[in-house]
Amino acid sequence: MASMKHVHLFRRYLSIVLTLFQSLISCFFDFPILIKIADSFLSLYFLVLCDLRPVTVDLDDGETTVHFWISGHRRISRPNLVMLHGYGGNSKWQFVHQVSDLSKSFNLFIPDLVFFGKSYSKNPDRSIEIQARSIVGGLKKLGCVEGGGGGISVYSISYGGFVAYKMAKIWPEMVEKLVIVSSGVGFTQQQKTAELKKHGGDCSKILVPKTPMDLRLLIKISMNTGLTFVDWVPDFVLSQFIAVMYEKNRQELLELAKNLLEREEEPELPVISQKTLIVWGDKDKVFPLEHAYRLQRHLQSSRLEIIKETGHAVNIEAPTTLNNLITSFVLSV
């Protein structure tokens, strides 16, 4: 009982100290400096320890700009692996626990999807297909798919899974293997909305948080373990994260979410021919495990791997296990 009291007191004092620190910082800076600094360190980590380089590709006479992190020294002996993130920040923040290991086995191509991170478009289209075409256009310009030929594997998580599936459908000669992690591919409009509404509130607020409370809800829905840290993070830090990740293109991100949630799916999900690895956390509260089994039954050339005691954010909760599954699947003949 006494120890719990000490913990609560410590948390209270820590929050006070951090709030005072924020007040001092705001005297000199009018932007979210803490997250900016963290983001800069992530860039340094990608550059120095993972041998990744930032590249920006312009498409359609500058109408669309796609930002990539790509392997600095590509090797012919290594397969090309494209990594597609979901909602919840840019590619650096979502793949920080994975890139070091994966960069040792693959030539990596890691885009920020359009309206995430440094990618942007003047095109009013908010469909999954425009995301897929933007990524493929960027890959072609980077020489990843010379002449539109084959040779890439795509690892995708959550929202990125919709984009990867569309790529595999439109460009079957280009995409050789597919890894789909925790993605609602094939969900009907009603199913997607129903699953998100189980957690209360507006679905768009869950995907594109505006307040620290919204962001805490997104994290708690996405993860099964390590949730206690969310209660320790002061509101001003979460507000800074929101400002950096969501405010610049908030309207566009909301429109993407609306398109994803409200668009009518095809009566029958197209069956793709690529070998597909499906990975799911057994505690996924966004897209329940039953959907993983349904997707596996739909795709004859697929296999399912279930990670125990893991939620929707497999890339954060079980990155080593996920990396091992991706590596063994893509490198297997």
Describe this structure in words.
The chain is an alpha/beta fold and 333 residues long. The protein has two domains: 1-30; 33-331, 3-Layer(aba) Sandwich (Rossmann fold), CATH 3.40.50.1820. Helix content is 48%, strand content 16%. The chain is built from 15 helices and nine strands. It has helices at residues 2-28, 33-48, 91-95, 99-102, 128-141, 159-170, 189-197, 203-207, 212-222, 228-232, 235-247, 250-262, 289-298, 314-317, 319-331, and strands spanning 52-59, 64-71, 80-84, 107-111, 120-121, 152-157, 175-181, 275-281, 302-307. Strands 1, 2, 3, 4, 5, 6, 7, 8 and 9 form a nine-stranded mixed sheet that branches. The termini are far apart. 41% of the residues are buried. The model has no long low-confidence stretch (mean pLDDT 88).
Main sheet attributes: strand count, strand direction, barrel closure: 9 strands, mixed
Instruction: Count the E strands.
Output: 9
**Which overall shape is indicated by the principal axes computed on the Cα atoms?**
globular
The secondary-structure element order is: HHEEEHHEEHEHEHHHHHHEHEHH
Number of domains: 2
**Model regions low in confidence, pLDDT < 50 over at least 5 residues:** none
The SS-based structural class is alpha/beta
Secondary structure tally, helices: 15
The CATH class name of the largest domain reads: Alpha Beta
Query: Which percent range fits the helix content?
Result: 40-55%
The CATH H-level superfamily of the largest domain is Alpha/Beta hydrolase fold, catalytic domain
What is the rounded Rg?
A: 20 Å
Organism: Arabidopsis lyrata subsp. lyrata
Protein name: AB hydrolase-1 domain-containing protein
Domain AB hydrolase-1: 79-319
